[in-house]
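Troubleshooting: if your tokenizer reports a length mismatch, compare your output against this known-good record of 122 residues.
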Amino acid sequence: MPGREEPRPRPVRLTVVLADWCPHCVPLSDRYSRRLARILRVPVRRLDIDVARQERAADRIVRRHGDPDPDYLIPQVFLEWSNGRIDHLLTGFSEEVARTRQAWNDLLRSGWLRRVRAGEAP
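Known-good structure output:
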């Protein structure tokens, strides 16, 4: 209909690509992803690269929307939207775990997250 505005996209799911053996992933990114999901009021999908069925989905989302080196870094975190868009939010670091923790803290304090929470989807 003319003049009818499309509804604003809203977050629908947070996806975390990780491995249980990775100290940047478990427990660190497990905990932070649950916290972010609560803030956004969305479920978390956890894709473990060491589980064959999950690995294919993990590789696909990383290849299409993340940091897709052949031996890509984990964790990688994605926000899926109601309009089908997928935003890459975070890639872990190969340095100390503290560096990945800082990236999570930066994300949780970001202006981007404040805007999303206010319904001002980017």
